[in-house]
């Protein structure tokens, strides 16, 4: 799994903003992997998995 630091850092920067984050891109570009990495980051920041919604 390739860690996309640039995009992950952008998500981290907007973590505490009260708006929905939308990830778009062409098929097979790593959107789901990026969301899984962001989920892991949130869990490491002590965010309860029940409070994380990824669809």
Summarize the structure.
This protein is mostly helical. The chain is 42% helix and 0% strand. It is globular.
Q: pLDDT under 50 segments (min length 5)?
A: none
**Average pLDDT metric:** 90
Largest beta-sheet characterization: none
Order of helices and strands: HH
Q: How would you sum up the global shape?
A: globular
What's the gyration radius in Å?
11 Å
Measured between the Cα atoms of the first and last residue, the distance is 20 Å
Q: What share of the residues does DSSP label as strand, in percent?
A: under 5%
Total of domains: 1
Protein name: AAA domain-containing protein
Task: Note down, in words, how this protein is organized.
- It is a single chain.
- With 55 residues, this protein is mainly α.
- The protein has one domain (5-51).
- The protein contains 2 helices and no strands.
- It has helices spanning 5-13, 31-44.
- α1 packs across α2 (31-44).
- 2% of the residues are buried.
- The model has no long low-confidence stretch (mean pLDDT 90).
Reconstruct the topology from this structure.
Elements: H1 5-13, H2 31-44
Helix pairs in contact: 1-2
Fill in the keyword field for this structure.
55 residues; 2 helices; AAA domain-containing protein; 0% strand; mainly alpha
């Amino acid at each position: 799994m390739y860690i996309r630091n640039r995009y992950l850092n952008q998500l981290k920067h907007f973590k505490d903003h009260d708006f929905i984050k939308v990830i778009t891109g062409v098929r097979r570009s790593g959107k789901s992997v990026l969301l899984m990495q962001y989920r892991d980051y949130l869990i490491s920041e002590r965010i309860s998995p029940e409070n994380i919604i990824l669809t």
